[in-house]
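Study this protein:
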Amino acid sequence: MDNFFQTLSHYFQPVFTGLEHWVGDWGIAVILFTILVRICLIPISVRQSHLAANQFVFSRKAAELQKTWTGTREALAEETPKLMRKHKFNPFAMFLNVLIQSPVLITVYATFSHLGPTAHSVLVPWVSSIGLPDPWVIVPIAIAVANGCTAMVTLIPADLMQSGSTKFSFVLMAGISLFILWSAPVATALYYGTSSLWGALERKILRRHVRRRILKHWNPETADT
């Protein structure tokens, strides 16, 4: 595992070093790197907004089908895949953005773990280097709370979602973030937090498009009658 981290650090440390030389601060370099990564991922984010709408419509149509179905369970099981194909629902495609970003997060962790005490930043003056964990755990807690808040900004409009789901998203995301960042280098938290904030802004922008796409294929007033 150490060899793996060293290999990642060997290839990506020059990238961060170049950004740091340009902006003059390691923390700002991490934020700039995050923005560049998220810009590259915009096409995937747009694609995922389509998939989120498809998933929502499929789940509602499937629930309606189960309520009105009068045939056998076997026949219902055969109809469900047809419904998935009709609405182009792929349960695994929604995780594509996460799968792509996970190696990037590991790369940031590996690079700054290797840099150790040499990566100073004015963004966190109480930490000697963002290559080290925050001894006061201020950054992990702050980023975890912020990530929980950004998780409440969903692609699906709030009036179409079940009540309580956003609160669950806050607790889940904050808990996962705190677990990941608790003893990680501060640079990891900067990447994670910046990426989450960017994602929330993307979802807010794309939400109107998602609403139109959902209402085009599903009428909630008809479904409730």
About this structure: Residues 186-217 form the longest helix (32 residues).
